[in-house]
DNA sequence: AATGCATGCGCAG
DNA sequence: TGCGCCTGCATTA
């Protein structure tokens, strides 16, 4: 689930469901966050903010923030009131008269101060989904680095919010060999990657899934049988190992890169 | 029932 | 580079 688009979407969804000025019932059935929940409960949610894969919730009359990071398998479930009895893995539940939302399995769910929140912003790279993002900051690091562009795109200090799916897909869309060192990436190439990330991730926020296949390459447009990728979006290479490339028909390859699975088409990605 | 795997990340060495 | 951590689901036995 969680790449940056998911988190920005969650910020919107938390806001629209709970930041209406009415008090929110905050609980932590699983227990770990119970003390903090008790401090915040019965106050209204004020704002939600997202930077990369980090989500922040702020409650009225409090300068503290709930800092949430979903990690690899954190999940958030929204539903209408009345909320069902929580299962014992629910780390954080918000509930009001109309809705509830449950958080399970996050790497992080902690109450932090405003300076601590700022420190997180400071250590994250520009986020293609934030209006204040400066892509040149990312390029300054990339253009100095001998690390592969595939690894750099996953480094949250370089770019915030890109995960394994967007990494693989944007490199495919730009025909870029994932193993090229960052310092070989030209300003024009980085500009194209960044522009593509902005477009793809905005679309991801809107649809709440990752679709990267251009209209002219859909199975219908290519005269191929319809296809459903098993993670809920239409993609070119992510988890399509040994399947035919939508464009050249060659086999999609996979390899370990920095403890993650990399997917790419060696025929198309030669730039 | 047990195992493996995942769109993540921080830490030790 | 490898390990642990958070959870749920699919696959294997």
Automatic annotation (TrEMBL):
The keyword Transcription belongs to this UniProt entry's keyword annotation: no
Pfam families: Fapy_DNA_glyco, H2TH, zf-FPG_IleRS
Cofactor: Zn(2+)
Residue intervals of the Formamidopyrimidine-DNA glycosylase catalytic domain: 2-101
Enzyme class: lyase
The protein, known as: DNA-(apurinic or apyrimidinic site) lyase
PANTHER family xref list: ENDONUCLEASE 8 (PTHR42697), ENDONUCLEASE 8 1 (PTHR42697:SF3)
Catalytic activity: 2'-deoxyribonucleotide-(2'-deoxyribose 5'-phosphate)-2'-deoxyribonucleotide-DNA = a 3'-end 2'-deoxyribonucleotide-(2,3-dehydro-2,3-deoxyribose 5'-phosphate)-DNA + a 5'-end 5'-phospho-2'-deoxyribonucleoside-DNA + H(+)
Coiled coil, from the record: none
Domain FPG-type: 236-270
Keywords carried by this UniProt record: DNA damage, DNA repair, DNA-binding, Glycosidase, Hydrolase, Lyase, Metal-binding, Multifunctional enzyme, Zinc, Zinc-finger
Family of this protein: Belongs to the FPG family.
EC number: 4.2.99.18
SMART domains referenced in this protein's UniProt entry, alphabetically: Fapy_DNA_glyco (SM00898), H2TH (SM01232)
């Amino acid at each position: 689930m969680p790449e940056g688009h998911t988190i920005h979407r969650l910020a919107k969804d938390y806001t629209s469901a709970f930041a209406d000025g009415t008090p929110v019932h905050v609980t932590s059935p699983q227990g770990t966050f119970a003390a903090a929940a008790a401090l915040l409960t019965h106050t209204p949610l004020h704002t939600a903010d997202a930077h990369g894969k980090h989500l922040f919730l702020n409650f009225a009359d409090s300068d503290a923030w709930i800092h949430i990071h979903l990690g690899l398998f954190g999940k958030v479930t929204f539903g209408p009131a009345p909320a069902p009895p929580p299962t014992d893995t629910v780390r954080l539940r918000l509930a009001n008269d109309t809705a509830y939302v449950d958080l399970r399995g996050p790497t992080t769910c902690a109450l932090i101060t405003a300076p601590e929140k700022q420190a997180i912003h400071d250590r994250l790279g520009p986020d293609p989904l934030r209006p204040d993002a400066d892509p040149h900051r990312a390029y300054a690091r990339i253009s100095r680095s001998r690390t592969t562009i595939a690894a750099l795109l996953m480094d949250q200090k370089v770019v915030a919010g890109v995960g394994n799916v967007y990494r693989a897909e944007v490199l495919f869309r730009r025909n870029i060999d994932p193993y090229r060192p960052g310092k070989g990436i030209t300003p024009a190439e980085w500009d194209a990657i960044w522009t593509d990330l902005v477009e793809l991730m905005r679309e991801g926020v809107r649809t709440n899934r990752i679709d990267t296949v251009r209209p002219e390459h859909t199975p219908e447009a290519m005269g191929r049988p319809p296809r459903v990728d098993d993670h809920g979006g239409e993609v070119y290479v992510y988890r399509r190992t040994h399947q035919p490339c939508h464009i050249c028909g060659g086999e999609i390859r996979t390899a370990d890169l920095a403890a993650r699975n990399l997917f790419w088409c060696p025929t198309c990605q030669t730039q």
